[in-house]
Write a structure and sequence with these properties.
single chain, five-stranded mixed sheet, 736 residues, alpha+beta, Rossmann fold, Hect, E3 ligase catalytic domain fold, 47% helix
């Protein structure tokens, strides 16, 4: 096979995102020579395929390294998990024979996999499921071990059998009914009653199997099947979880849910508690592939029907809005609703006009908020259908911004970015409306320019990323605290795809490093002298300039911020945030002017006044990934010895991946119940198992960067790149 080039690998990985789930599963089977787990996410499918592609091109982990990881993984497993692992070691070449349903099946044991009927499998459990159509422990199915039952389990089984015999072997069935709307529910015999009667009749027909209808009623009237936020459904699932209900009976599948995703969740709950459901009018067997296909088709049509109904409603709302009609929602301050139309409430309307006038006079929402609170003006009081009340509180800034831009007060209706003439009366006059909007726009522009910012971005307009792209200052607020960043401009103005290698770095870190470097520059006689070489300075003049530069460095920390800002803007031409350092280009002419106070007398030796005369200084600082942004690490030392927590995490990741791909669990959700871990944690571990071999070797040998800890690695798992080269870059390792 011809080896793949770097470009071939990159192209192949890039094409994976365009493949559908079926093609991805086929590609997985082609590369792994065995099918993927039945329930595996698209992300993990792509990661597994990409890992194999890169492994073929660059090589994978050696067998000694894999054995070392396996040994470490066994040490990290709890005793209860170790009992679940196969206790029999099978040598390659061994043949396993099992008779099932009148047919003999032969399985050949290979190195790290099994072959049955010409196909390759990672585990015996996957083969057992193919043969029987049900979940089996592969070693137990082929007679390699017996299931160990604890004393607690024996007691529970015995109690269950005793209870079943005492009750005559009855199977308690719950009838679940649902109707999407409230129409007709007030009738003596409504749709819910009709569904229940049909389900009862079906349960009676299964009396020979011990089916008995539960006296509890699980009715959801007037609730959509598009989600699981339904009281009766939640009560039913709780009873199933508690073991009270064995079978859920519905009239049709779409009564249970119209969402494929929700149905998968419900089935997981049923399977976990050995319960099942029956649709009275739709007969199918979910233990076969054809039955599951039929069920998925029915649910797909049910979801399609729900989405069509939603589209009709959205179209009706859009048409009504275009005609300027009021289509419901929270009634704005200054209006009441009568005959499904907005009617001006004069008392509230006067409050709205006052708010608009005061903003036009004050020009600040913050000042306006304080003024309204001082006058005792509060938000609209609202009475809810359940008897509760809300509102009647001082206006928040966000509420005032929304009110001042609400086109309803102008006599218009806004819908999805379009403005239509409304059928209601305007409260605010056109002149006042325009004045307020102009002031809002002016304030918005002033904020974007940083004219009145408390923390102006020091390097705005001068900082670029490692690819030479401009970076823009931005910020985020969390718990009342502002966090400032410099972000590659394309990430703000375009989508992520337009700048896949764009950067986001903390503004405070970059600015602090740049300011410290400038102070160090003025304190260094050698660097200042080098910067002034192109100028004709005699010895006394040079000594004077060096003394001036030293005084600037000494007084640096006591200078007001505005003076430091002016100095930075005068001297710095450009700041480039590179992978291993920050490069700062200083303007020689500006340095000369600052340390001599002379703007015109001297010219550079042998250079024109227009010549490029930048002087470059650097700060050693490495960019390291931290969540969605980057950190700046000064220095860049390595750990020097293995980090036990980090090594344990990587070993655990490989162990979890092996368990997941072995087929002993059909999904990560099943593993969460067995291992008592969250699905998010297990998903992160599986992603970490696809770290490049170089990263794994570096971690096991203790040569990782100091800042790479187990906590940081686990936190970075969700956004971990697929490409090995990009993984090295994200985790602070040299490129391959």
């Amino acid at each position: 096979m011809k080896p793949l080039s770097d470009r071939d690998v990159a192209d192949a990985i890039r094409r994976l995102s365009d493949l559908n789930a079926w093609d991805l599963r086929n590609e997985w089977q082609r590369l792994h020579r065995m099918p993927p787990p039945m329930r595996i996410s698209r992300d993990l499918l792509i990661r597994g395929i990409a890992y194999k592609l890169q492994e073929r091109a660059y090589g994978g982990l050696s067998k000694p390294m894999l054995r070392r990881l396996a040994e470490l993984g066994n040490k990290t497993s709890s005793p209860s998990e170790a009992l679940r692992q196969p206790t029999v070691v099978l040598k390659p070449g061994t043949r396993l024979v099992r008779e099932w349903d009148g047919e003999t099946h032969t399985v050949e044991v290979l190195e790290g996999q099994f072959r049955w009927r010409g196909r390759y499998y990672r585990s015996l459990s996957m083969i057992a499921k193919e043969i029987t159509g049900a979940h089996w422990s592969g070693p137990r199915f082929f007679g390699l071990r017996k299931r160990k039952v604890s004393a607690t389990e024996e007691t529970e089984i015995g109690d269950a059998k005793t209870e079943q015999l005492a009750s005559g072997g009855t199977v308690l069935c719950a009838i679940y009914t649902r109707k999407s709307s409230n129409d007709g529910l007030e009738q003596e015999f409504n749709s819910l009653d009709a569904q229940r009667e049909a389900c009862k009749a079906y349960i009676v027909s299964q009396k020979h199997a011990g089916w008995v209808a539960s006296p509890d009623m699980y009715d959801d009237g007037g609730l959509s099947g598009g989600n699981m936020e339904r009281p009766a459904l939640q009560r039913l699932l709780n009873d199933i979880t508690a073991g009270k209900i064995r079978i859920a009976v519905v009239y049709k599948v779409d009564r249970l849910t119209r969402s494929l995703a929700d149905f998968a969740k419900i089935v997981d709950i049923l399977d976990a508690h050995h319960a099942s459901f029956v649709s009275v009018t739709q007969q199918f067997n979910t233990t076969t592939s054809m039955g599951r296909l039929t069920l998925n088709m029915l649910l797909s049509f049910a979801q399609f029907e729900r989405e069509i109904a939603s589209e009709r409603i959205r179209d009706k709302i859009a048409a009504s809005k275009a005609k300027g009609m009021w289509m419901g929602g929270r009634v704005p301050l200054g209006y009441d609703v009568g005959d499904r139309k907005l009617i001006v409430n004069e008392e509230g309307a006067e409050t709205v006009r006052l708010i608009f006038r005061r903003y036009a006079e004050l020009g600040s929402v913050t000042v306006l908020r304080a003024d309204l609170e001082r006058q005792g003006i509060v938000s609209k009081r609202r009475q809810h259908a359940d008897g509760g009340t809300s509102g009647g509180r001082p206006f928040a800034r966000g509420a005032l911004y929304t009110l001042l831009q609400n086109h309803t007060y102008r006599g218009q209706v806004a819908y999805k970015g379009e403005i239509y003439p409304g059928q209601h009366e305007a409260i605010v006059g056109e002149d006042l409306w325009q004045t307020v909007q102009e002031r809002l726009n002016a304030n918005r522009k002033a904020r974007s320019l940083g004219a009145d910012a408390k923390e102006p971005s020091l390097l705005a307009g001068r900082i670029i990323d490692r690819h030479g792209n401009r970076m823009t200052p931005t910020h985020a607020n969390k718990s009342g605290k502002r966090y400032r960043y410099y972000v590659t401009t394309a990430l703000i103005t375009d989508k992520r795809e337009a700048a896949p290698r764009g950067q986001r770095v903390p503004a405070g870190d970059v600015e602090a490093l740049v300011l410290d470097r400038l102070r160090e520059f003025f304190n260094s006689q050698i660097e200042v002298s080098d910067a002034l070489i192109p100028f004709t300075l005699d010895a006394p003049a040079l000594v004077a300039t060096l003394q001036k530069a030293k005084s600037i460095s000494d007084d640096w920390l006591s200078q007001p911020a505005i003076k430091v800002r002016a100095l930075v803007h005068a001297i710095i031409q450009q700041v480039a945030v590179q992978e291993e350092q920050i490069v700062i280009d200083l303007d020689r002419r500006s340095i000369f002017n600052i340390v001599t106070g002379d703007d015109t007398t001297c010219q550079p030796n042998g250079m024109s006044a227009n010549a490029n005369s930048n002087y470059t200084v650097m700060v050693k600082a490495r960019l390291r990934r931290a969540g969605k942004g980057m950190r700046l690490i000064v220095g860049g030392a390595v750990a020097g010895k293995p980090n036990p927590a980090l090594v344990s995490l990587v070993a655990r990741a490989f162990e979890i991946r092996e368990q997941f791909l072995s087929g002993s669990d059909d999904s990560l959700q099943s593993m969460t119940r067995r291992l008592r871990k969250t699905r998010g944690h297990l998903s992160s571990l599986v992603r970490l198992s696809y770290l490049s071999p170089k990263i794994v070797r570096v971690i096991l040998d203790g040569e990782q960067p100091m800042e790479l800890t187990a906590t940081r690695l686990l936190a970075a798992a969700k956004s971990l790149p697929i490409s090995w080269t990009e993984q090295h870059e994200a985790l602070g390792l040299p490129r391959s």
